[in-house]
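Q: How would the structure tokens look for this protein?
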Amino acid sequence: MSNSEKIPALVCGEIGLIRSLGEVGVPVYAGSYYKDHIAYYSKYVKKRLHFESSLSHDFVKQLVDLGKAERRKMVFFSDDDRVILTFSQYRGDLAPYYYFNLPDAEVVDSLLDKRKFALLAEQYDLPAPRSFIPSSSEEVKCAGSKMEFPVIVKPAHKDDWWDPKFKQLVGPYRKAIMCQDIDSLTDLYSKVAQINPAIVVQEYVEGDDNDLFSVNIYLCKNSDKLGYFIGHKQRVYPIHAGVATVVETIRNDEVGKLALDIMNKLGLRGHVNIQFKHDRRTGDYKIMEIHARNSLWAYLGTASGLNLAAMAYRDMVGLNNPEVPVPHYGTKWIDFNKDLKALFDYRKAGEITTSTWLKAYMGRKAFHIHSLRDPKPFLMDTWFFLKRYLRATRRSGAASHV
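A: Here is the predicted structure in token form.
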């Protein structure tokens, strides 16, 4: 099949997915809510599409309209939880226009809502930390009788806390916030409830940022082929409660087997990302989250020789997949912009030195944005940063003259 005949892939996601598909000749359409999304500027993007918020039904209508205009089915990819959730809920409307491979809609919903996932983990006896789902400040006060402190607090959906008021009420955004006692928990709840009261309280799993492991899996529709790689998180930002800034491919048969057993138990298929934390107290691996998608750093697999996005594309359009290669262990994925910020915070906490930080940049690696083969996203990211900086400087200067 020539490139001109290949079925396009619509990617509502990050640059790593786009490069993974584009490098094997798949025509890529990039869709985003953000008009300055840097993925638009990849050389692999054939069309740029601006969508409404994925929380809106207008998003679904736009997807349908695009499908009708194309007059052929496209392959759908996303690494965004909200996009996946909406697509899954309206899969009946979208099926005539898109190839996709998702678990059942009820399962997707249970995986992406942390409150429902806590109940799912209990139902299937999954190795997850004990969780508590309060619905009011009065119930939060009872947490001491249900949980052992310290605990961490998470929003039901990670973007529930993406609110301008969060920084003012709580502080810098974090995926999870630790509370040492009942007083700090009730105080935190009084603040986050003003933004969104849907939270999960979870017992803290003892360990550092480099005790985090993430298994990225693709299970084909007929379940006869399977590819996966394990990413060992080395640093995150914000530190101790953020997204990965450095991840390295490793071999860990215990984690791999645990992830596959969980997939089979829950009846999962397609792209699945399972995140574990090694509990230093017990030596066990605890599930922190499961997503019905690949991770932000999908390109780590591609850089290590295992292109799960390309495998998924071939599976969904009905092409045979070649033998699944073993990934190259020791390959690193680096988000340099966030990792530079993490350096200052880790140094302030006394956890790493600059020389330790630099060691991650040795050996085989791929960057989140920076790429000599596809340089424009980095250039545009730099330009957008400078524009934001100059705008903030002008506002600050104007305020000082008032």
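The domain at 209-367 is CATH 3.30.470.20 (D-amino Acid Aminotransferase; Chain A, domain 1).

Residues 376-400 form the longest helix (25 residues).

Upvote if useful.
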